[in-house]
Amino acid sequence: MAAPQTSLIYIHGFNSSPASHKAGLLRAMFEQAGCPERLIVPTLPPSPRLAMAELDAAIAGAGPVALWARLWVVSTPPGWRSTTI
Question: Could you give the number of structural domains in the chain?
């Protein structure tokens, strides 16, 4: 039995959207690789608290995921690990 495929959740900035240039580039890369369903770009509200709830829901429904964000992290919610790449 094959292991489940890992999806990527792209976390756009608060002044951005899933229609951003970076999200579009990622979408094109995933389409070219033949796995567009493995890219998740949720629409995040400007409220950090509401955005965290949206991300929690996206993560819970996605199976194995990697997160990619270009954000300044002021604080990390309990249970989350912050890594700068």
Answer: 1
pTM beyond 0.85: the answer is: no
Asked whether residue 83 is assigned to any structural domain, the reply reads no
Place of tokens 């509200």: 45
Range of the domain at 36: 25-77
For 15-67, the pLDDT digits (tens) are 788 898 888 998 999 999 999 999 999 998 888 889 889 989 988 888 888 88
Within a domain: residue 40? yes
Q: 12: buried, middle or exposed (CB in 10 Å: 19+, 13-18, 0-12)?
A: buried
